[in-house]
Specification:
Elements: H1 2-10, H2 12-30, E1 36-42, H3 52-62, E2 71-76, E3 89-92, H4 96-104, E4 105-110, E5 126-129, E6 160-163, H5 166-175, E7 183-185, H6 199-209, E8 216-220, H7 243-250, E9 254-258, E10 276-278, H8 285-291, E11 294-297, H9 302-307, E12 313-316, H10 320-327, H11 333-336, E13 341-342, H12 345-353, H13 355-373, H14 380-391
Parallel strand pairs: 1-2, 1-4, 2-3, 4-5, 5-6, 6-7, 8-9, 8-11, 9-10, 11-12, 12-13
Length: 392
């Protein structure tokens, strides 16, 4: 299955064959599959995980009597590996039963796609798309033609799509060719807890990770480079840093939570350096954001989510010119990010060593960034339930 997925992502011919044949088959099937107005289908990142905004919406529904008569199904790629709380049933993602469930469901609730690169949605099906972050790098129709992650024939499907600001509305409506009326300024449900967490919560997470109170915690969350692939077409990432230099310079005062993108986590090894804790497979990114004192990233939408907490942020973009040229950006990072863009590790380390002196100023810069790009947050799960009921 993994080999087939890689083939579909890397070969236009294979993908086109898959798209036309499977879309036709599912549309024909849809003529014979009954519709259920009380059925809600959830997935997160195509069924990879039980997390993100769909999870928050689902758990909000469990305590909302307005949804007690609705049947809820979660699509998971490996149903035996994840336990879904509450009354939802589980279907294996991409199975025959999954596609039948999708054809029957009144509402699809996703942060990515239910159709899996196909086109079979019925007109009366409502697609509620939370998406999974504010855009820094280009997406949809804005992706360059020579980008190795070529465009799907189906843009992001949404009858309702969530936004955190007018910036989101402008970008998503253009790159996904959606009417602006589809975009709802409600915030992202996954970020609700970032607006309401307590210091007690942060302390408990720190204790569970085994980090002493004397250490300053840095969350390092770089994104992937889709143009960097191995011979098997897997995306890889080799960060050009001297781990020993980081250990010697920062090890006494800091702990670095290393959170690689899921595409590249298996290619980085930091276990030999006590400064680093590999949290790439840690199930809850929000907990890592809550417990950390500052963020280091490059071109990731995590900057927007993290800004809700008004903590310092750093940008380590060693391949800035190459990445911005190959991937394309919606904003001028040098003007908009609330921090210096470091292209070498020595400058970043020096900046980090001045963390205590610069902390308040960096927090103020983060707050200004949030006020521009994340204007709505804190009650997104409640807003989402209300929006879904309006369509039901």
């Amino acid at each position: 299955m993994n080999r087939l997925a890689r083939l579909l992502k890397s070969s236009r011919v294979a993908y086109n064959l898959y798209y036309f044949s499977m879309s036709f088959l599912l549309r024909v099937m849809g003529l014979f599959v009954g519709f259920d107005n009380k059925l809600l289908l959830f997935n997160s990142f195509g069924g990879k995980r039980y997390d993100d905004s769909p999870k928050v919406i689902y758990e909000k529904m469990l305590n909302d009597d307005r949804f007690k008569e609705y049947k809820i199904v979660w699509a998971i790629q490996d149903p035996n590996s994840i336990e879904i709380p509450g009354r939802a049933t589980v279907v294996k993602a991409d199975s025959f039963k999954y596609f039948v469930t999708a054809l029957r469901a009144k509402v699809w609730i996703t942060n990515s796609s239910i159709e899996r690169g196909l086109n079979f949605k019925k007109k009366k099906t409502v697609c509620f798309n939370t998406w999974h972050g504010t855009a820094i790098k280009t997406m949809g129709i804005d992706i360059k033609e020579d980008n190795k992650s070529f465009k799907s024939r189906v843009l992001v499907r949404a009858d309702v799509m969530l936004a955190q600001s007018s910036y989101d509305i402008k970008v998503f409506s253009r790159c996904f060719q959606l009417p602006e009326s589809v975009l709802k300024l409600s915030g992202l449900p996954r970020n609700d807890c970032l607006a309401t967490y307590s210091q007690n919560q942060a302390d408990k997470i720190r204790e569970s990770l085994g980090i002493s109170k004397e250490k300053t915690i840095l969350l390092y969350a770089p994104t992937f480079r889709e143009y960097s692939r191995d011979t098997q077409k897997n995306i890889v990432l080799d960060i050009p840093i001297n781990l020993q230099l980081w250990q010697e310079s920062l090890g006494e005062r800091f702990v670095v939570l290393f959170r690689a993108h899921y595409e590249v986590a298996k290619h980085m090894r930091v276990d030999d350096y006590p400064l680093f804790i590999d949290v790439s497979s840690y199930p809850n990114l929000n907990e890592l954001m809550i417990v950390s004192d500052a963020l280091i990233s490059d071109y990731s939408s995590v900057f927007f989510d993290y800004s809700v907490m008004h903590k310092p942020m750093y940008c380590f973009a060693y391949d800035f010119d190459e990445y911005t040229s190959k991937r394309g950006m919606y904003i001028d990072l040098k003007d908009e990010l609330p921090c210096t863009i470091h292209q070498n590790e020595e400058g970043l380390i020096e900046d980090l060593l001045n963390f205590d002196q610069n902390r308040n100023a960096l927090c103020d810069r983060t707050r200004s960034f949030q006020e521009k790009f994340v204007t709505c947050y804190g009650h997104a799960a409640e807003n989402s339930c209300n929006l879904i009921l309006e369509r039901l």
